[in-house]
Write a structure and sequence with these properties.
It is a single chain. With 168 residues, the protein is mainly alpha-helical. It has seven helices and two strands, in the order αααβααααβ. It starts with 30 loop residues before the first helix and ends with a strand. It is elongated, with a radius of gyration of 22 Å. The mean pLDDT is 86. Strands 1-2 form a two-stranded antiparallel ribbon.
Length: 168
């Protein structure tokens, strides 16, 4: 027979373990702060689209082509415009303008700096590519933003790119 008493069979080990301090740990950005940064970035993009429609014959409201062609063209144009506006800041600071204004930044899950290729290719590029497909793009976008309500506060694009958004 075992020397462990029956009533204590499932007790946790009694060894004392010191907690490891989390000095230097990154603090995740709040959901509201991330939303605010995204809204600032969308406002900047809308202003840029408006300016483009003033100085060119292109209009995002022209629905003369098929749904797929229109959706794909708008998604591609939006992605190129996003990179034109935010690319420098993503490359040099791992931030968009909205993230800079609200003092949050994008890093890898281990806290290291996220590369420009990872940010524009995985974090933003996959979403831009998927958004070219009607219905699938909308479903992707919905799932993407709703995942922020998990404890990890990671959206789908964060999981794809192995990134987190932190304060500072």
């Amino acid at each position: 027979m075992s020397s462990v008493p029956q009533d204590n069979r499932y007790a946790p080990p009694a060894a004392h373990v010191e907690d490891v301090g989390n000095e230097g740990a990154l603090e995740l950005a709040g959901r509201g702060t991330r939303l605010g940064a995204a809204l600032i970035d969308v406002a900047i993009a809308m202003l840029a689209v408006w300016i483009v429609t003033l100085v060119t014959p292109w209009s995002p409201w022209d629905e003369s082509d098929t749904l797929f062609a229109t959706t794909a063209a708008h998604a591609a144009f939006g992605y190129v415009l996003f990179i034109a506006i935010q690319g420098y800041f993503l490359a040099t600071r791992s931030q968009t303008v909205g993230k800079m204004l609200l003092d949050i930044r994008i890093v890898r899950s281990d806290g290291t700096r996220a590369s420009f290729g990872r940010l524009v290719g995985l974090r933003y590029g996959v979403g831009a590519l998927v958004s070219m497909f009607p219905w699938i793009g909308q479903l992707y976008s919905l799932v993407d933003v709703l995942l922020i309500f998990r404890e990890s506060r990671k959206c789908l694009h964060d999981n794809i790119a192995d990134t987190i958004v932190v304060k500072g």
